[in-house]
Specification:
This protein is mainly α and 384 residues long. 66% of the residues lie in helices and 2% in strands.
């Protein structure tokens, strides 16, 4: 009996996946944007007022990114951002302050870079201390509870004059230095294309590094396991618990991260103002209820949970306010405004308030949803 040899069926080659096409339009737009941001101090030249408007937008960007992670990704409403801005600004001034230069005020004399890191860490720890409250509340109840921190910050800022300098004079923040290079006006100053790189130009590049770092850290967190746990808790806490997610720990982590971002924005605010000064009341100032509403508007206009959307929201909210103030100071806009009349601050509030209403009514996804629709038209479709 002869053995029959059966031939193996021919193997069917697997289809080779088509290489992913690059979106050259998006790449070109990103390159042009980076070049524009790097060249902005040269383009503005001696008109540093325009550069300060751009710096203020970067402050709103960093703070807005931190809040959109908390509200949009983790589903926790917070109005405590002004409190953490104040904690970050005061922490930097105390950690890097020199007692010899500011007699009567507490200063530890740390290197400025270490003071910035320390201020961010302190804000994160303060946010972590609020985590037990954040873990037990949600929605409007958490928003009201977090709003109490703004009033706490007002009282602490006015009471602890050894740290804040008080509402009458405040205290100057220490000049930021990095490896002996001071971010202040010096003589002689390096020049680029004939433009001297002085204090405002140096602060622009410093703020740009802070904003880019915050942007990429946030994008990395969203695309990681941390971001997935945030969204699981946001969508359904019971289902997240069944999947093994520690809801209380995730909420605490989200509040801590958001507080740290706000602390960095507070350091930037102190350097931008060249002054650390607590507010005189809870309604107006750099750490007031108005600022809490402005950050919430940034998140809504940009789109809940969208990091690029937070940048757009900061341009609309923070950018318009400073643009109108610049026009009022340099070109005499609103010169006829009397008490209760139209001013730069009121007009900017009207504009971004109207933007919030339009977003809620017609595009709940905010600028992020509009951007996705526009980019989809220019994105090459996959071939089947």
């Amino acid at each position: 009996m002869s053995d029959t040899i059966t031939e193996a069926p021919p193997s069917v080659p697997r289809p080779v996946a088509a290489p992913k096409k690059r979106n050259w339009i998006k790449i070109a737009a990103t390159v042009l944007l980076v070049l524009f941001l790097v060249a902005l101090p040269i383009l503005t030249g001696s008109q540093v007022a325009y550069l300060k408007v751009a710096q203020y937008i970067l402050i709103g960007t960093v703070g807005g990114i931190g809040l959109t992670l908390l509200v949009g990704q983790a589903g926790q409403l917070s109005l405590a951002h002004p409190f953490f801005l104040l904690v970050g600004a005061v922490s930097y001034a105390v950690l890097a302050g020199d007692p010899a230069e500011s007699p009567g005020l507490v200063g530890l004399g740390f290197p400025p870079l270490l003071a910035v890191i320390g201020a961010v860490v302190i804000c994160g720890l303060v946010g972590l201390a609020f985590a037990p409250v954040a873990g037990r509340l949600r929605g409007i109840y958490l928003g009201v509870a977090s709003l109490s921190l703004v009033f706490l910050g007002l009282w602490l800022g006015q009471s602890l004059e050894l740290f804040t300098g008080g509402t009458s004079s405040g205290r100057p923040p220490p000049t930021f230095e990095l490896f002996g290079f001071a971010f202040s006006t010096t003589t002689p100053a390096p020049t680029i294309a004939g433009v001297p790189i002085q204090k405002q130009q140096r602060l622009w590049y410093l703020f740009l590094v802070f904003a880019l770092g915050a942007y990429f850290l946030a994008r990395g967190a969203i695309n990681s396991r941390i971001g997935r746990s945030w969204r699981a808790v946001r969508d359904n806490e019971a289902a997240a618990t069944a999947m093994g997610v520690n809801v209380a720990r995730v909420k605490a982590g989200a509040f801590t991260v958001s507080s740290a971002f706000a602390g960095l924005a507070g350091v930037m605010t102190a350097l931008w103002l060249d002054l650390v000064k607590p507010d005189e009341n809870e309604f107006t100032g750099n750490y007031s209820l108005t600022v809490a509403i402005a950050f919430l508007a940034i998140v809504i206009i940009g789109g809940l949970g969208s990091v690029p959307g937070a940048v757009v929201g900061a341009i609309v909210v923070y950018g318009l306010q400073q643009f109108f103030l610049l026009g009022a100071n340099q070109f005499g806009w609103f010169a006829d405004a009397q008490f209760g009349g139209l001013s730069a601050v009121i007009l900017s509030a009207f504009v971004y308030g109207a933007a919030v209403v339009l977003v809620v009514l017609f595009e709940p996804g905010g600028a992020a949803a509009i951007g996705r629709r526009l980019t989809s038209r220019f994105t090459p479709r996959k071939e089947r």
